[in-house]
Design brief:
The chain is 41% helix and 16% strand. By secondary structure, it is of the alpha/beta class.
Amino acid sequence: MGNSGMKQELSQKVRVLFFAWGDSIHARRRIGIFCEDSAFEVGVISTFRYDFANAKNYYLSAADLKLKGQRIRRLLFDPILAIRYARRFKPDVIFLQTLIYPNYLSFLLPRKVPMMVTFWNGDVTWWAQWTGIERAFKKQIVLYGTRRAAAITVNSKAAFEACLGYGAAKERVNLIRYPGVNLDTFRPSGDKSGVRERLGVRHGKVVLCPRGLGGYLNSDIIIEAAAMVVERMPEVLFLFISGVDSEALKQEHLKRAEELGIVSHIRMDGQVPWDSMPSYYQAADAMVSISSNDSLPNCMLEAMACGIPVVMGDIPQIREWVEDGINGFLVPPRDPVSLAERLIATIADSDRIVEKFVGRNIEMVKREVDSKVMSSRIKELVRKVAMRTAHTGDGVEHG
C-alpha cells in the first residue's frame, strides 16, 4: 500500500491521507490548505461526513456494512473500514490530526507508510497524564504514537518538551503553528460602529467570548464576572459564540444570568459561519478566554490580529504568548473577581495601555503565525517525510 511511485523523485502529487476527529474547525482549516494545493492529493477519514473539495472523503459508518449500533461500530467495524479506505487511497503519508478517536485506528495500517501527527497540547500536556484505566489506555496511545511517528508537529514549547518526555526524537518534533492566522482576513477595522450595526449590537461596549460554553472553558465564571462588570459598566454586552456542551447548559447559564439581573447583557449567537468571525472580533472591545486546559487558541491569535486586547486564563501554554500587563492580562481560570477587574481595566483603559497591547500583539502575530508562512512550512515537512521514505524505503520503524 502506498510508496509504489515513491521510488522516484516525487515528481507527481504527494498523496496525503488525513485522519480527523469529528466536526472540527481545526481539522477543516489544517486539511483545507492541502486541498487547495494542486501538489497534493488528499484523502480524509473521519467519523464526520466532511465535504472537502478536491479530496476523497471517507466516512466511518456502520451503515456502509448494513449494521447498526454506535458501540459495536466503533469496536468492530470502524477499524475494518479504516483499513479498507487506506488501501483504496494508497497514501504516501498518513497525517493524524491529534490522537483522539478515530485517529489511532491508523496504528493498524502498514508501517511502511510514514505517519505524521499534529499533537494538540492536551494530547501530551494533560490528557495523557491522567490516571485511571481508560486514561492509562490513552496515555499508551500517546506513547506509541509519539515513538512511531516519522514527524510530529506541535504549537507550543510546552507540548514540544512533553513530546520529548514521551520518547520522541528531538529531530522529529517540529514547532509549526499551522495553519496560523490569515492576516488578509483577520485585521483591524476602522469602522467598529458599522461592524456592530451589521451584527445588530446595540450596547456601547462588547466583551467577546468566542469559545462557547463548557466545563473546562469556565463559561460559568465568565457569567459571574459579567455581573460585576455590568454593575460598574452598564453599557457592556457579553457576546458568546461557538458551540455548547448541551442546550441544558445554555439554559443553566441564562438562568444564572437572570438571577444576577444581567440577562439583557448576555447574548449567545451559537456557531457562526467562519467568514463572519472577523466581524465579531472587530466589534469587540475585549476578548476573553479562561480555559483551565488549552492548546494554542486560534481565537486569541485572531483577536490579536484584529487589534482586540485579550484577557486569558493564566496557564503555561498561554504564558508563552501573553505577559500580564505587557500585551494582555492573565487571570486564574476560576477567579471571577480577578476576571471582572481585568475586563474593567481593559475596557476603561484609564492607564492608556491597551493601545500598547494592540501594537505589540499585531507585530507578534505577523512575526510568528502568518498563515502563509505556516502553511508553507507544514507542506514542506510533508514533502520531506514522503521524500525521505522514497529515497530510503525507511517507513516509520523509528526509536
